[in-house]
Amino acid sequence: MFATMLSHIGSLLLVIMICGTALVILGSNCDSGRKIAWILVIALLPVVGLILYVVFGLDMRKPGHFQKKHKVFLEMFNRHTDEKTKQLLFGRHTEYKIKPEYQELARLLSKGTGTTVCEDNIVEVITSGTRKFNALVEDLGNARHHIHMEYFYFRQDSGSKKIKELLMKKAREGVHVRFIYENIANIDIAPHYFNEMKEAGVEVVKFTEPRFNLLRLSAQLNYRDHRKIVVIDGNIGYTGGMNISDDYFHRWRDTHMRITGNAVSGLQYSFMNSFVTSGGTIDGDWSPYFPEHEEFEENDRLVQIVPDEPDSQWPVLHMGAVWAAQHSKEYLYIQTPYFVPPEPLLHALQSAALKGTDVRIMLPEKADLFYMGPANRAYYKECLEAGIKIYEKTGRFIHAKTMVSDNYLSIVGSANMDHRSLELNYEVNAYIYDETVARENRDIFLKDLEGCREINISEWERRPWYSKMTQAAVNLFSPLL
User: Fold this and answer.
1) CA–CA distance, 393 with 419 (Å, rounded to integer)
2) For residue 112, is it within any domain?
């Protein structure tokens, strides 16, 4: 009888917890699809669903949630940098140099992250992993003062080990080498791999380190550092979709950027913020980290570095993608390996196509994750019905995350077009306001079309019933992917 009573009490507590959690979900700021998906998970798997929600579902995007960590960096930045650097990163004097119709986008992005448009930049768009590897090796070898590197994946294959050895070599030479790696993404790599770097003088920090604190554990498992950043001597910067791995150097098709000029300071600011808030220290004079750059009379590109994170009150990369779709007129070309758009972005893309914009989305025919193929395809019908053109790239897996619109706006970065990148991860995108770079990105997209298969709506409707069922089932949980 006592056991029966305990069973009833346990069941009652479970019901109370489920109802309470459902109320928390309904009152959260996430979109309706995400709310329904979480309630469905908890309804189908009550105990497991509750645990999953606490670990992966709690909404941390609230002003001030992580501000204690950032406060240390901001105090250091204000103390160690001069007014010229602050004006470069936060001033608004360059916004007037971009086309008037795009100035509100620049203001939107700077409101969210504080960084603004920078002039006097040379931009190289890189679509070859071999080119990225060779250029990076050369630039790292020429470093004189510091190397700052932050990556989601840093593997143990041949190319990665060469980069690791070069970082260790430069540290032994006296170069300040600082390195951030995403702990959860690289959890399969033994600690001694990174300890070897530390022993050589590389300052290594983990972006996340789970501890036995429920809210801390939730934040650290769910909010991942998906950025790819390199800064060399404050003069050269890399960012985009390529991690440090032979997949990116040799096997996959991806897009990255090499930047020289003032915009490197935006990447520097983002890196140093992450490094300090992850437990690293940067002592001494900070002026070498934000050097003055020459003015370019030719090939000058206007670039805005836009980091996004759950620390910020506003999901600026999501808002920026919605703005780009809503304001596109002639065309909007998108490449992404994961297409699970939040509801506002999906509607913006549909609206753009319905008003006559040539909207094209390129995805891999075969995803690198088994569940992402059905997840991507779950949105094909809604897109095709609105007039959006869908292309699946055959052959090499395409990992590029790019948008280009109307021969002026280009977006290249680390963010996928899914809930995780646009709402949960730490990401960084570069917004380039330039006709030459936009035409280059447009031509890259059109060249990639040669290896694609266009999805026809009538053909899509005739796909096998089991494919429809799988996609419908995955679509229920797509906001959680």
Assistant:
1) 22
2) no
| pTM summary value | 0.88
Do 77 and 51 share a structural domain? no
Q: Which residue has the tokens 């060469």?
A: 162
Active-site residue, from 247, 406, 434, 448? 406
In this structure, are residues 89 and 305 in contact, taking their beta carbons and an 8 Å threshold? no
CA distance 33 to 343: 8
Q: Are residues 416 and 385 in the same domain?
A: yes
User: Catalytic residue among 228, 293, 318, 327, which?
Assistant: 228
Distance CA(328)–CA(297), nearest Å, equals 29
Annotated catalytic residue within 170, 256, 293, 399: 399
Asked whether 132 and 248 are in contact (CB, 8 A), the reply is yes
> Which stretch of DSSP H or E encloses residue 10?
helix 2-26
189-227 tens-digit pLDDT = 999 999 999 999 999 999 875 444 555 555 556 678 999
Find where tokens 């699946």 sit: 392
Structurally, the chain folds into a number of domains equal to 3
Q: Which two tokens mark 420?
A: 């995780």
Domain that holds residue 413: 316-480
**Whether residue 186 is found in the same domain as residue 237:** yes
